[in-house]
Amino acid sequence: MLRCPLVVGNWKMNGLIETAQDLVDRVQAGISDREGRQRMCEVVVCPPYTALHTINSRLGESALKLGGQNMGVEVEGAFTGEVSGIMLRNCGCRYVILGHSERRALFGETDEMVSWKVKSAFRDGLNPIVCVGEELAERERGETLQVVERQFLAVLPSLPESPAKRPALVLAYEPVWAIGTGKTATPAQVQEVHHYLRGLLKKHLPDTADKVRILYGGSIKPSNAAEILAQEDVDGGLIGGAALNANDFLDIVDAIPDLT
Ligand code: PEP
Question: Is the CB of residue 62 less than 8 Å from the CB of residue 27?
Fold first, then answer.
């Protein structure tokens, strides 16, 4: 097996300390049960920054991992409001979501800024989960593959020179029109874009293309997860709304095809 499946919960701006603790305790308990069944799958939750430290101290030796939802480019200094990759590491994070469409649309993040952050994430020892995806109008104009290619090519120069370090990269295909809308891309639409991204990886990073995981995100829920996660080039999911309900999130983890 080249790639270990990965399921990531993006809690967005949801959860005070107490509710975050409760949610992570439920997810962690479910993950422990699943470890007993030898399930081979990495599971990550990305709570708000304010809950990271508390949650990290509850995780202990748990198989459940932590991630940030964004990060600043610099290590430290006069950057009011920013949180650095080193700070995320200090709170136990191993992953960081970068270039989420909400960051791009609501906070003006450009392809170039996402690329800077990818470079910083590798510098700081975090696995970047780089989100790419088209808006509805772009899909309707037939530009989906061009858009994801542009977003992918923008981060290429920020990847480490050493092929051994590049498999830390994770791509997440998240069609903007499917995020938080209840509209899910069809399995065929998902597979088409994932296959295209795999081809781009093979073309530009031939040594590591088969090791980079490509997640799908966009209104995944227990009822549609199995079909999407079964697609050949889908290595897991980035889950928003459904990650706020422990049972739904664990059902999605269970929908990962069995690895035999
Ligand atoms: C997301 O925000 O990354 C996401 C996929 O959200 P949702 O699952 O709610 O569509």
Answer: no
Say whether pLDDT at 7 is over 60.
yes
Which of these, 133, 199, 128, 200, lies nearest to 170 by C-alpha position? 128
Tell me, using a 6 A CB cutoff, whether residue 217 lines ligand 1.
Answer: yes
- The CATH topology of domain 6-246 is TIM Barrel (3.20.20)
**Residue-range domain boundaries for the chain:** 6-246
pLDDT at 61 over 90: no
The model's confidence at residue 21, banded by pLDDT at 50, 70 and 90, is: very high
The dihedral sign for the CA sequence 83, 18, 56, 119: negative
Q: Is 53 in the active site? A: no
Gap from CA of 160 to ligand 1 centroid (Å): 28
Rounded to the nearest angstrom, the distance between the alpha carbon of 140 and the centre of ligand 1 is 21
Helix-, strand-, coil-residue percentages of the chain, each rounded to 5: 50, 15, 35
Residue 112 CB: number of other CB atoms within 10 A?
11
> Do residues 214 and 234 touch, judged by C-beta distance below 8 A?
yes
On the question of pLDDT at 260 being above 60, the answer is no
Are the C-beta atoms of residues 234 and 215 closer than 8 Å to each other? yes
Told to judge if 194 belongs to the known catalytic residues of this protein, a careful annotator would answer: no
pLDDT in tens, 213-257: 999 999 999 999 999 999 999 999 999 999 999 999 999 999 998
